[in-house]
Amino acid sequence: SPAPWLIFAATMFGNAGVFAWFSYIKPFMLNVSGFAESKMMLIMMLAGLGMVVGNLFSGKISGRYSPLRIAAMTDGVIAVTLLLIFAFGEHKVASLALAFLCCAGLFALSAPLQILLLQNAKGGEMLGAAGGQIAFNLGSAIGAFCGGMIAQGFGWNSVALPAAPLSFLAMSALLIYGCHQRRQAY
After folding, report:
1. Dist CA 43 CA 173 (whole Å)
2. What is the pTM assigned to this prediction?
3. What span, in angstroms and rounded, lies between the C-alpha atoms of 11 and 65?
4. pLDDT digits (tens, 9 = 90+) for 94-140
5. pLDDT at res. 151
6. In Å, how far are 94, 106, 121, 146 from 140, measured between CA atoms?
7. Is 24 helix (H, G, I), strand (E, B) or coil?
8. What distance in Å separates the CA atoms of residue 161 and residue 38, rounded to the nearest whole number?
9. If I label 29, which of 21, 122, 133, 183 is the partner at 20 to 30 A Cα–Cα?
10. Which pLDDT score, from 0 to 100, does residue 104 have?
11. Which of 144, 182, 131 has its CA nearest to residue 27?
12. In angstroms, rounded to a whole number, what is the distance separating the alpha carbons of residues 123 and 109?
């Protein structure tokens, strides 16, 4: 069935998108946003708070919306946020707010994607869950690689450039999954 593969793709590309930028958050915040190195601990605490808030928010709305809708909308928000990080990274307040939002989105994706995987791995739930973790880790590595390649040629501000299309690919995989599921229902 293509369903789990589309969810694996969404997981991989979604993580690749965020990690293309997040893997280089320190040089980005120092060299683009202009923060002092002594502020990095506070910046990372803010990013961590975003992760907690994103996870809590995703759980809170999961009773009202489908996991597909939550994940697809979150990937869309992340893609736009990453473009805004590229555009407004030199502004300290914007950089902090967007970092918080991007990290919140990353952790808002976890539960809905896991639910979708388990719903589509009947009889192979353990394999589906393991595949989701593999896709997460592969996406992290691909994202860090893409961000690093771009940064070498274009500077630290550019790490967000490959990030947005990767997140858009994640959203696209989920939309294709949704179309596939609707066709299966008829």
Report:
1. 32
2. 0.92
3. 19
4. 999 999 999 999 999 988 999 999 888 888 888 888 999 999 999 99
5. 83
6. 24, 11, 23, 10
7. coil
8. 27
9. 133
10. 97
11. 144
12. 24
